[in-house]
């Protein structure tokens, strides 16, 4: 995962393809001792339907380079936490509109 001062990251898939993604938000979990990032491919929010494919990963930031390493979320408990955080985020977004 690479990121700078912007709210974008470049995600590289298993085939080595790069995808520029917009960061929706990040958060840390003391319970799991990890940081998480929720993101979606840039351009996907321009589509005709209202569905955006949001991805989530845990990550380990590298303070020296500004990069980080994405890791898959491995447990149902972590997915429950991510889903809860996403629902809270989306509820706040709706209140602001």
From TrEMBL:
- A single Pfam family it belongs to is DUF1292
Which positions carry the signal peptide feature in this UniProt record? none
InterPro entries attached to this UniProt entry: UPF0473
Q: Which domain of life is it from?
A: Bacteria
Family stated for the protein in its record = Belongs to the UPF0473 family.
* Name used for this protein in its record: UPF0473 protein EM808_06380
């Amino acid at each position: 995962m690479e990121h700078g001062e912007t709210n974008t990251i470049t995600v590289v898939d298993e085939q080595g393809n790069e995808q520029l993604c917009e960061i929706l938000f990040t958060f840390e979990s003391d319970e799991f001792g990890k940081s998480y990032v929720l993101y979606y491919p840039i351009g996907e929010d321009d589509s005709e339907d209202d569905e955006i494919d949001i991805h989530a990963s845990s990550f380990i930031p590298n303070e020296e380079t500004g990069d980080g390493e994405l890791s898959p979320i491995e447990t149902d408990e972590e997915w429950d936490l991510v889903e809860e955080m996403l629902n809270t985020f989306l509820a706040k977004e709706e209140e602001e509109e």
